[in-house]
Amino acid sequence: MNTKKAALTVLSIALKIVIIAVLAVVLLRVGTVAYEYGHAIFEEEALDEPPGRTIRVTVEEGSSVRDIAKLMEHEGLVKDWKLFYLQIMCSKYSKTMQPGTYELSTAMKPRELMAVMSGEEVELDWDQEES
User: Fold this and answer.
1) Is residue 22 within 8 Å of 61, Cβ to Cβ?
2) Domain parsing of the chain, residue ranges
3) Model's pTM, two decimal places?
């Protein structure tokens, strides 16, 4: 009976170690993904090098921020609409984006895209390189 109790104790300890190891790996993976996504929100990378491709985009009246983010991905201006949506929500542009037709470039950073669609004048550094 003592042997049986010892075996159950060893098995219980081994099971706890396995559970802790699995939890540690899961937490590490979730932490890594969260960090990479969070970093991408504020990193601000354009899809292409200047001058990129110019794409005409029409934002319809009543479009939500989500709709605009999906449109930007569909038109090839951003890689991931969910990431762009979060970038908008973390910016000052979350409530200022306006309907209209815009000439946007794949070389524009997310904040520049948002600024143009919010009616701001955007000075692009790479415009001067083309002249």
Assistant:
1) no
2) 1-43, 54-130
3) 0.73
DSSP code per residue over 83-113? HHHHHHHTSTTTTT---EEEEEETTS-HHHH
CB burial of residue 69 (10 Å; 0-12, 13-18, 19+): buried
Query: Is 49:107 a contact under the CB 8 Å cutoff?
Result: yes
pLDDT digits (tens, 9 = 90+) for 14-23: 999 999 999 9
pLDDT in tens, 77-123: 999 999 999 999 999 999 999 999 999 999 999 999 999 999 988 88
Q: What is d(CA 65, CA 100) in angstroms, rounded to the nearest whole number? A: 14
Domain 54-130: CATH class, spelled out: alpha beta
Residue 126 burial (10 A CB sphere; 0-12, 13-18, 19+): middle
Residue type, 73: E
